Amino acid sequence: MKMKLSDFLDQSKEKIEVAMSSYVESLNTPDLLKDAMLYSLEAGGKRLRPILVLALLHTYNKQEDIGISTACAVEMIHTYSLIHDDLPCMDDDDLRRGKPTNHKVFGEAMAVLAGDGLLTQSFSLIVNDSKPSPEKRLRIISELVYAAGVEGMVGGQVADMEGEAKSLSLEQLQYIHEHKTAKLLGFSIVSGAILADAPEDDIEKLRTFAYHLGIAFQIRDDILDIEGQQELIGKPIGSDILNEKTTYPSILTIDGAKEKLDSHIKEAKSLLNSLSVKSDLLIEICDLIATRNH
Ligand code: GRG
Fold it and tell me: Which EC class does it fall in (predicted)?
């Protein structure tokens, strides 16, 4: 029976949040470190990356519980990246998801260590989950290193820092977001497909699908950012806002960015339609990403 998207999202979120918190609670480590890790893990967030792992299992008609450890692992890596990104040596942000950032509450040293802890334990979660075969676990770990490490998110963050205060080309911007954002979303999708025993042909199509979805996610993020600023100042966007940092709207204009978003979503959906299974849930998730308001 077809499940309503909102039910799938709510149920998945609940399972992931319970599993992440109880995993961290179970660790044999100082309470202060657990508190710092839990503070950011429990601060909310859309949980898009872990939901995608479960959505892939659902698409291939497999038990979603097989993916819980991998789902928690990717959300823990995402959370670590946000904690470190907010540090004074990086973006120096005071608020994240409407709450004081980790270092504002626990201090810089503990925030660095909470991030390190989340990153490292995410590998432990995957390695020690006896449900998938050892071969699958190894393949998933290798995908995770590719997505989150220096050839993925960490490399993207460095390229972003190097590009700060510079005017970037569309290709340079694309490189940053492919690495910083799309690769980790890609990990969620590919690992879910591996766990679901999807055909290899499908896995490669899903990898390309994830690229389009990831770039679309980032373009929507840029548009939301501009619209948020517009609301704040109560007037249409002037070139001053558009020129502050290179974004899709600053290169393409807002309308151009919306067209680019639509074309990535179209490519993503056409790849979904070429899979060996029906992918209604993933198509609905594409639409949600293209139209999201936060
Ligand atoms: C510090 C290694 C290192 C990497 C940081 C992810 C990242 C790289 C920085 C965060 C800043 C940022 C705007 C990244 C682009 C990706 C993105 C839009 C992240 C926010 O993800 P959401 O919207 O956040 O899924 P929630 O709060 O819903 O989990």
Answer: transferase
